[in-house]
Every structure is written in structure tokens, then in C-alpha cells.
């Protein structure tokens, strides 16, 4: 089963949430941002080049122009490779654990896996972010020493920052899986 | 009609039946309020303002209102926290400048405060303490956003020196378009009306309260072979520690069976230690140092007489706490103190060593002759005087009244600032108000209100923590909220 | 609040107490509101001539600075022989010294317990040291440009006037700082004089006019106010005359300054006093009037 819904992020941008239900114990959520638009790319490039040209007319040194070209190229590469995340995926399998994958615009992927034994709970929390107060989904990890304590809070969908309605959808499904896991681990 | 939307079809006719005037219709519509308390002073900081905000909020939640508190971050305590009964506290990361008060530029706190006001759907901003820059900032922003404002003043100010002239001017600016002001005593009301040049009709007097169950007498804890005088205050000049340093040797020489217990810390502790050293009173004067609020009662019940030497005081909580513990109170006659307790429970003196010694001697002779009422009797009288429920009830009336009033629109607000605050200050702040408004317009353009998530209420009519018998649809959200603590 | 029956409203009188629930709304304003307000309790009434008399301290100090600068100018121009100034200064100091004891009949001396021998000793020590060090003073500021020296002297003399103890009880007053600034200015100016003897005499003169003269003035003012007024007038006219011999414009400006300080400012003060509105009431911080230090000494 697979469905796709459209939500928005905290700045009002559009996000798409894809849910794939493989089985009651295994679900995948995938939030994808719109790809880098040609318009914003053009705008940034034009601004840098215009600024460079302005500087060039002032001090008449052609190094500035070539530097501008290099800066835009390198900046674009760096941006695509290290900053711009196109897609964030949360895969939750009740007997195994939770895997979070973020794929960059360049195609690079980084993956974090948390095994189920460490996961205490998945919650929605509130926090102050820049000049905003936002909701975010996070995973609580168990403290290995003290079973009721929390050793770490791992935020999910860090780059997309979806709004509350989207988070609630994901949260509900995760809770269902976690409940299923508790039920199966308690019964034998 | 606006009131039809909020009241619900079932309640509307009853409102018409019970209250006839059109003004009360609108108050009915806003029967519960979304209140945002703003002050720089809140727990973990300790003091009168902090406990006032906390207790008032708890009682308002109990009465079905939604209450949130906004303060600045205290060390590692930043972000959002929930206290008892779902009282939500925002600890905002703003820079502290002096004495736990934040620095103010009048603008930098607008983005965060606006975000909070919008997401919590706040209708009334209630600021506390004139020493708190954040409280004034919040009032300023709230008026720009068109929200109703209430301000509580907890302190008294003089008119003589340069610093008070300046702070009084700022208070005039801050309060001239505030909807309602609450003072803690009649003296404080007179003071605030004079300082901010207000119409006394928009200033209400609602005293502080103490929790009488926290301050119960325990006559077995005190030794009746000796007489113990208890002092609990910060040891600073304004609390009259200098007077205390004169009273102790005077009376200790006269009465060999007199002991002092002094709780509190401060820069003037050194002079008490010097006095103790010089007159060899180590076994009769105990300096306990800083006290936790929960220990105050245990110190109070060890004494027979409570001594307060304050030089200025808007409403003295300490003497009410002491009287509630069954002690005879001896105090200076300053500020609002004469209004606080009836004459048979307090001995009022002039702020001088001689007069205070006479007052204490009177109390001692009454104690020796057995003319004082039993601690339990005093407690039973005092516990009826001040309760937080009563405070919340009266504050609620202020909210109801304010909710029916209109917030001044921008042009009238500017007029009022210019006409009310003097030509120079008025124009400066009118300009600042305009800049603030433009900043708000800019913020609304960058993040429109529709993009801001409405927060899930923890308290109030639809609050996740409000007890309800049929399980609601929002069970999942409830879970989410309760786990964020 | 609502605990008492409404029928009581007619008889019930409002009380300024918080512990009773009264049948009035919380924002009720009684007739007794602000009845404890007092205005101008501690305001002083000023008499015009008394203020003029007090302003003479400022006049004296301004004239001292003026005389000092005029004398320095004469020395710098070579119009005044240092020996002559030294002689006059010594003579007037001796006269002042005798007067100082005569005015109050030697009471001040008895109180302080200072002997004449001690006075003589300190005078000798001072003169010897200044004389010994005057060549150093002369060369001390050689490497500094003259403009800087002038600017510095102006600032120092201004500072002297600002911090001088005119009898006001303010935090800014510091007679030591004031005297030090004046001496510093004199050292600066003296270093621009032609010879080291000049420098020595200039510094000695500065001590006389900035340290000894105000002491004598204070005593004069306290004991014989009438002669003090005479001395002030005489001193002011001589300062004006000295300035007039250098620059007529300067003398006119200086005369205007003196007149405005001694006549206009007191007039303004007494006038503005009428507009004073100092508010007092029960909210004021109480003052501790007793001397509490006796418990610690």
C-alpha cells in the first residue's frame, strides 16, 4: 500500500509525504522537498555575477570575474552535496529498528540506524528554532544504565521541518508499529 | 453578531436570560480567556513576583482558562517546559542584562513573542513587575498586535532621584495605553497612578495571597522558657537590616531570655555578624543564611514574635506568612503594610531603632502576661484574609472587563502617546511604535499567520490536561503532549 | 467583593484595608484617594541676596584662576620680574597667615593642635623641594608641544573649577583632585617660562592662590561675612583689571560671566523654585535618621 499526501513546511514551502505500508510491522515514510528550481539558481548566480561585475568596474581587475565564476560553481557543488537535502526517509521495522536516510541533491545518501532495543519512544516535541517555536518529531533513546531515563533525543526530518499535521500522521503510524512491537514482544 | 460564533447555540439563550446589558453579552462570549503571563521573573528564580505568577496561573487554570507563561532562559533551562496541571512555560533565549532583567531594544523580542502569541491564540497579555524589561516589551508588542493588555505592579518607587524620574517616565509610556493595571495594595495604587499619570479608574487593587495550608502554627516547636524573635528577609538596606543591627544589642542587654533567629542572605549580613561578635551574642542570635521557601515555615514556627524592619514595601507577604503561623507581628509603618493586617494582629512602629524597640517590648510584655491570642486562633483569623482563589476570581473579573474593551487602533495609540507622555518622549515612542508596527508587517509578510502551527492547548477549555470524562478524539495528541515533559 | 449583602452599600464606608472584603469594585476610587499625598516637604525657600552671597565662592575661584593666568602671561612676556612676584607673594602669605589666626582668635589652631613650628617646617620643606626640583620641572615637558601644554592646562583648570569644594554636598566634589589638577596646570604652564627660577616661583604662587587662599577665604566667610564681601569685590575687580590690561574683549566677557553667575543664576534659582513639585507619601522609602554606627564602635 502506498499513498502520497501534500503538506507544507514551517516556512510555508510545499512538501510531499509518501507512506509505504509493507506490513503492519514495517512502514516507511518519505518526505521530499521540491528540487532546486531553475529560477532561484538563476537569481543567485545573477546576483553574484552582477556584484562581481560591479567590483570589476571599480578596481578593473579581471581576477574578480574569474573568482566569481569559481565561487558560483564551487558554491553550487557544495550546496548540492552538503546542504540541500531532497528527500528524508524514516523506515520503521518493529523487530529491527528505525532507519533514517537523507539523500542530498547530488545523490549522496547518509543513513543512521537505531536498533529497536535502544528506542524508548517516538514523540512530537516543541522547541525554539531561530525566531520560531516549532514542533518536531524525535526518537528517544533509552539510557543503558537507568531503564527509565533518556540518554539522547534524536530529531527526525531535520532538514524538511514539516508542520504539525504532517508530523501527527507520521507519529500515529509510528505509535501503531511500536504498539505492535510491544504486543509481540510481551506475548511470548 | 460576533457573539454568536463563540457561544454555541445551546448557551446563547441562557446568556440573554441571565444578563441583559449588551456589554455583558460580549463578556460572556469570552468567558474563558487565553492568557499569557510575561515576566522576567519566574522559577527557578525565587521571590514574591515568581510565586504570585505561579499561584495565580494555577488558580486560573483551575477556573478553566488557558494560561501560558513567558520568561527568559535561566542558565540551562531554556525552551518549553510544562509545570503542574499543564502550565506551559516558554524560557526564551534572550540576553540577561542586570539583576535577571533582560536587555531591551524594544524590537528584538518581537519575532519570538509574536510567534508565541499567534500559535497559542493568546487574547490577553498579562505582564508582571515594573523592573522587568521583557514585561514592558511584551506590552508594547501586544498593543502593536492589537491584543488586550493587563499589567501588575509589585513594587513602590520614590519620586526624588534621577533614576526614579527616568523609570517613572518609561512607566508612563508603557502604561498609557495599557487596558488595565493591577496593584497589590492601595498605597501601591496611589504610587502607580502618580508615577504613570493614570486614570485611577483603570487601576484595580488585588492583594497578594499566601497559601494558608503551607503556613500552619506548631506551638510545640517553640520553647516557652525563652522568647524568640524571628526575622526572615533578604539582608539588604531596603529591608532595614541596619535598624536590626541596632535593635539586637539594645534588647539583648535588657532581656536576658530573648533570642533572635534571622533567616536570609544579603550584603548586609556582615554588619549583623559584627554586632553579634561585638556583644558576644553567638548563642542568642542565630544567622541561618539563605532559606528555601519550603523551610520558611519551619523557621517561623520556632518563634513567638516576628519582626519586619522594611523601609519600603508594597505588600508584605512575610508578615502575612508569619501571622498565619501564629506569631505576633511587629513591623515598621511603611508603604502598604498598615493595610495588610488588622490592628490587633500587628504592632506598627516608626522606622527607627527606638520605636521598634518599644514595639518589641510591648509585644514581649503582652507575651509574658499571656495577653496574646493562641497561635491557632491567629491562624484561623488570618487564613480567611488572603487566598489565591479569591485573587484569581478578582483577576478574572479584570480579564472579563478588559476583553470587552477595544484596543486602541494605531492612529489613536499614537495620539495618546504624544498627548500623554510629553512632547519629546511622546514623539520618540510614537516613532518607535510606528517602526514596531512596520516590523510586524514585515514579519507577517515573511511568515504569515496561516503558516504558524496552532499549538495544542495544555490548559483551557479544550486543553489536553483538562480533566474530561468521556475520552476525546485527541487521545493521540494527549499522549504526545504528556511525554514531552 | 461580593461576600457582603448589597444592602450594606449605603452605610458601608470604604476602608483602606486589604484584609476585609468590601462591597466596592476593585477599581473603586474613594474620596480619600491620595489624601496622604504631600508636596515639597523638604523644599527650601531661597532668599535672593543669600544666594548671591553664597555664589561669591564661585566668583572667588573663577577670579583665582583668572589672576593666575594673568600673572603667568606677564611672566611669560617678561613684564613681571620673578623676584618681585616672590616678594609680594611672600609678604601677602605672611599677612594672610597672621590674619588666619587673628580672625577667630586662635580657636581653630587650638582645635587642630598644630604648632607654628610644624607650619614653618612644612613651608620650608616645600620651598626647598620645589626649588631643588625646579630645573627638572623646567625640562620635564620640553618634548611636549606647546599647544598640547596649553590645552592640557585649560582642561586641568576647568577640572579644578568643576571638582572644587564649593560647599555643596555632592559626590563629584573632591578637593584633593581639584587641588592636584590646579597644581598640574601650574606645572605645565611653568615649564614654558624662560628660566627655572620662574618655574619655581610660578609653582609657589599656584600653591598660594589655589591652596592657601581658599582656606583663608573660608575662614573669612564664616567669621566676618561683611569683610568677605569686600575682599571678594576687591579681588574680582583686580582680576578684571589685570585681564583688561591684556585683552579688553576678554575682560568684558569675563565681567559678563561674573555678573551672570552672581546675579542672574540666583535670580533664576529663586524663580524656578516656585515651580518645584516634589511628591511625598507613604510609598517613599523611609530614611534611617539615627546614627547606627554607635552600636558597632
From TrEMBL, chain A:
The keyword Iron does not apply. Pathway: Glycolipid biosynthesis; glycosylphosphatidylinositol-anchor biosynthesis. The keyword Hydrolase does not apply. It comes from the Eukaryota. InterPro entries: PIG-H, PIGH-H_dom. It holds the Pfam family PIG-H. GO terms for biological process: GPI anchor biosynthetic process. One of its GO terms (molecular function) is glycosyltransferase activity. Keywords: Glycosyltransferase, Membrane, Transferase, Transmembrane, Transmembrane helix. Residues 89-158 form the Phosphatidylinositol N-acetylglucosaminyltransferase subunit H conserved domain. The chain crosses the membrane at residues 36-56, 62-82. GO terms for cellular component: glycosylphosphatidylinositol-N-acetylglucosaminyltransferase (GPI-GnT) complex. Belongs to the PIGH family. This is Phosphatidylinositol N-acetylglucosaminyltransferase subunit H isoform X1. It comes from Puma concolor (Mountain lion).
TrEMBL record, chain B:
The lineage of its organism: Eukaryota, Metazoa, Chordata, Craniata, Vertebrata. Its EC number is 2.4.1.198. The keyword Transmembrane applies. It is an enzyme of class 2 (transferase). It comes from Felis catus. Residues 228-366 form the Glycosyl transferase family domain. The chain crosses the membrane at residues 424-443. Pathway: Glycolipid biosynthesis; glycosylphosphatidylinositol-anchor biosynthesis. Residues 72-161 form the PIGA GPI anchor biosynthesis domain. Keywords: Glycosyltransferase, GPI-anchor biosynthesis, Membrane, Transferase, Transmembrane, Transmembrane helix. This is phosphatidylinositol N-acetylglucosaminyltransferase. Residues 465-485 are annotated as: Disordered.
From TrEMBL, chain C:
Belongs to the PIGC family. Its main location: membrane. The keyword Nucleotide-binding does not apply. The chain crosses the membrane at residues 48-75, 81-100, 120-137, 149-168, 175-193, 199-216, 228-246, 252-269. InterPro entries: Plno_GlcNAc_GPI2. Keywords: GPI-anchor biosynthesis, Membrane, Transmembrane, Transmembrane helix. This is Phosphatidylinositol glycan anchor biosynthesis class C. Pfam families: GPI2. The keyword S-adenosyl-L-methionine does not apply. It is a multi-pass membrane protein. It is found in: Membrane. Pathway: Glycolipid biosynthesis; glycosylphosphatidylinositol-anchor biosynthesis.
